[in-house]
Write a structure and sequence with these properties.
340 residues; alpha/beta; Rossmann fold; Dihydrodipicolinate Reductase, domain 2; 2 domains; seven-stranded mixed β-sheet; six-stranded parallel β-sheet; 34% helix
Length: 340
Amino acid sequence: MKKYKVGIIGCGFIFDRHIEAIQANCESYKLVAICDIDKKKTDIRAKEYNVKGFYDYEEMLKIMKNEMNFVVIATPNYYHYEQAINSLKSGNDILVEKPVDFTHSRIQKIIDTARKFNKNAYGVLQVRYNPTVQMLKDGIEKNIIGELRSISLIQRWQRPSTYFDSWRTDENIGGRILYEVGIHYLDILQYIFGLPKALSTVTFNNKHKHVNFEDTIFSILKFPNGASGSVEVTIAAEPSNLECSISVMGSEGYIKIGGRALDKVEISKFSNSLVESAWNRLQSGYGDSIPPNSYGTHLGSCPNHPYLYSEITKGKGIFLSDTLNSVKLIEDIYKVEISK
């Protein structure tokens, strides 16, 4: 089995999730280097994990060239593209936090670079691994609720004003809220139901008024089979996250998955007992979801990084080619935004 010698670029908010994943898969992964422009943070973390610390990622790529073969990119969103390209050219497989980039065309360039240098490039869209998500996908593929009629995503989350005290306040670095907050759940829409077309979008700024872009967005979609769709994403809920749910209505019934992070089947009802029995049999084949991460008031993100790392060792994982449609959907939603 291949041993991944890992360097992490970025020691910020998501850094600990990757450390947990490496430790959970220690037979396959070994942390060998970290990098962050914050020298104090780098020094503390490097000492904590007894690895080499760098303040410049290009220096890390150069010095660790023969000692590292897997680079995790966990920096502010804007920097992913350049760091991914250079990491691949230096001979490393890569894992890029979401969003990989703000445009699908630049993600394609990363994919092309990985192919050119015969390297693997993965993305972090780990909500796909939730048992409830896999269960719903399986049920839709088995046509359990019949002809799809309507699909709705609701993500009503809380983010404190301090959430935008750093790079996230700059649209050019962080992107808008669909890139930073909504992408995981928009990914599930296209993953299960196919890539929809956005028909119209309206945005509002109801809470984070010091930021120059929305904290609330509504969009109307049309799915490939003709089903109607809607999206509501907000980070203006108080005092904590309210819900994250996907509701599906079909000719034979409806299903709603929700909880804090699509980790529960909230309700299901069907037109007859045969359909209900088929759904119950399907449900019995899936395990329980792991409770979502808690960050105080905004409990809700999915703790599936260890599973993603495990899948990569099996030659699976989420390849960057699998992340393209999520970004295409976000681009499309913003493209039809109605001016206010």
